[in-house]
Amino acid sequence: MPELPEVETTRRGIAPHLVGQRVSRVIVRDRRLRWPIPEDLDVRLSGQKIVAVERRAKYLLIQAEVGTLISHLGMSGNLRLVDAGLPPLKHEHVDIELESGLALRYTDPRRFGAMLWSLDPLNHELLARLGPEPLTDVFDGLRLFELSRGRAMAVKPFIMDNAIVVGVGNIYATEALFAAGIDPRRAAGSVSKARYIKLAIEIKRILAAAIERGGTTLRDFIGGDGQPGYFQQELFAYGRGEQPCKVCGTTLREVKLGQRASVYCPKCQK
């Protein structure tokens, strides 16, 4: 699943080609996503100029003069720029054609993503209750410590809760916990303030590094410019179960936490 760095990579790839451009038409070949694409999307968006492309959590917000297109890439979707009129392949469900001659093409093999329309996107039901962005000053270790008190749930699903902080998905939660030396199975309420401060620092560092390198190449993720991410080569724990730890050589263990595979080092993480 594309996580925050992959979505931010997509945003940075498509924004320069969209902002300031006017939409000539919208072609919807299949409306059956996780939430159906609005039947009047073409009417609402065509003729409008795109004024900004922003990101909130893992949602892309394509802002027009009136209204905003809310897009989510789902499990395996992507947005990329193609020449308008390029024949679509299977699973290429939407084209947003621009007066420049380019089209923003949405591909979603599993149809688990979204393309919705809103006049007030930040108060849309999908976005209104989200926690702070991890790369802002609002998010820090003190927040994690205070919200974790009395929580018996494991620390990994705790930091993956979008009400606590957005965008810390399975890959980056695994890596941040490894870097902070925290066992992902540990009860969230038992982690000290000092360790949460360290964890928040590592979350910020790892997400920023992944964005800088274009995200993590997993399965079929590609950025908005059609290029893959290059962060996977730097992974210490995610996807490395039963392999030796890069730090101490101990065999990494894999367990299930919150229906997600979690890899950790029994020596480095306590």
TrEMBL record:
<dbReference type="GO" id="GO:0140078">
    <property type="term" value="F:class I DNA-(apurinic or apyrimidinic site) endonuclease activity"/>
</dbReference>
<feature type="binding site">
    <location>
        <position position="110"/>
    </location>
    <ligand>
        <name>DNA</name>
    </ligand>
</feature>
<dbReference type="InterPro" id="IPR010979">
    <property type="entry name" value="Ribosomal_uS13-like_H2TH"/>
</dbReference>
<feature type="active site" description="Proton donor; for beta-elimination activity">
    <location>
        <position position="58"/>
    </location>
</feature>
<keyword id="KW-0479">Metal-binding</keyword>
<dbReference type="InterPro" id="IPR012319">
    <property type="entry name" value="FPG_cat"/>
</dbReference>
<keyword id="KW-0456">Lyase</keyword>
<dbReference type="InterPro" id="IPR035937">
    <property type="entry name" value="FPG_N"/>
</dbReference>
<dbReference type="InterPro" id="IPR020629">
    <property type="entry name" value="FPG_Glyclase"/>
</dbReference>
<keyword id="KW-0378">Hydrolase</keyword>
<comment type="similarity">
    <text>Belongs to the FPG family.</text>
</comment>
<keyword id="KW-0234">DNA repair</keyword>
<dbReference type="GO" id="GO:0003684">
    <property type="term" value="F:damaged DNA binding"/>
</dbReference>
<dbReference type="GO" id="GO:0008270">
    <property type="term" value="F:zinc ion binding"/>
</dbReference>
<dbReference type="InterPro" id="IPR000214">
    <property type="entry name" value="Znf_DNA_glyclase/AP_lyase"/>
</dbReference>
<dbReference type="Pfam" id="PF01149">
    <property type="entry name" value="Fapy_DNA_glyco"/>
</dbReference>
<comment type="function">
    <text>Involved in base excision repair of DNA damaged by oxidation or by mutagenic agents. Acts as DNA glycosylase that recognizes and removes damaged bases. Has a preference for oxidized purines, such as 7,8-dihydro-8-oxoguanine (8-oxoG). Has AP (apurinic/apyrimidinic) lyase activity and introduces nicks in the DNA strand. Cleaves the DNA backbone by beta-delta elimination to generate a single-strand break at the site of the removed base with both 3'- and 5'-phosphates.</text>
</comment>
<feature type="active site" description="Schiff-base intermediate with DNA">
    <location>
        <position position="2"/>
    </location>
</feature>
<dbReference type="InterPro" id="IPR015887">
    <property type="entry name" value="DNA_glyclase_Znf_dom_DNA_BS"/>
</dbReference>
<dbReference type="InterPro" id="IPR010663">
    <property type="entry name" value="Znf_FPG/IleRS"/>
</dbReference>
<keyword id="KW-0863">Zinc-finger</keyword>
<feature type="binding site">
    <location>
        <position position="91"/>
    </location>
    <ligand>
        <name>DNA</name>
    </ligand>
</feature>
<feature type="binding site">
    <location>
        <position position="151"/>
    </location>
    <ligand>
        <name>DNA</name>
    </ligand>
</feature>
<keyword id="KW-0862">Zinc</keyword>
<feature type="active site" description="Proton donor">
    <location>
        <position position="3"/>
    </location>
</feature>
<feature type="domain" description="FPG-type">
    <location>
        <begin position="236"/>
        <end position="270"/>
    </location>
</feature>
<feature type="active site" description="Proton donor; for delta-elimination activity">
    <location>
        <position position="260"/>
    </location>
</feature>
<dbReference type="Pfam" id="PF06827">
    <property type="entry name" value="zf-FPG_IleRS"/>
</dbReference>
<keyword id="KW-0227">DNA damage</keyword>
<dbReference type="GO" id="GO:0006284">
    <property type="term" value="P:base-excision repair"/>
</dbReference>
<protein>
    <recommendedName>
        <fullName>Formamidopyrimidine-DNA glycosylase</fullName>
        <ecNumber>3.2.2.23</ecNumber>
        <ecNumber>4.2.99.18</ecNumber>
    </recommendedName>
</protein>
<dbReference type="Pfam" id="PF06831">
    <property type="entry name" value="H2TH"/>
</dbReference>
<keyword id="KW-0238">DNA-binding</keyword>
<dbReference type="GO" id="GO:0034039">
    <property type="term" value="F:8-oxo-7,8-dihydroguanine DNA N-glycosylase activity"/>
</dbReference>
<feature type="domain" description="Formamidopyrimidine-DNA glycosylase catalytic">
    <location>
        <begin position="2"/>
        <end position="113"/>
    </location>
</feature>
<keyword id="KW-0326">Glycosidase</keyword>
<keyword id="KW-0511">Multifunctional enzyme</keyword>
<dbReference type="InterPro" id="IPR015886">
    <property type="entry name" value="H2TH_FPG"/>
</dbReference>
<comment type="subunit">
    <text>Monomer.</text>
</comment>
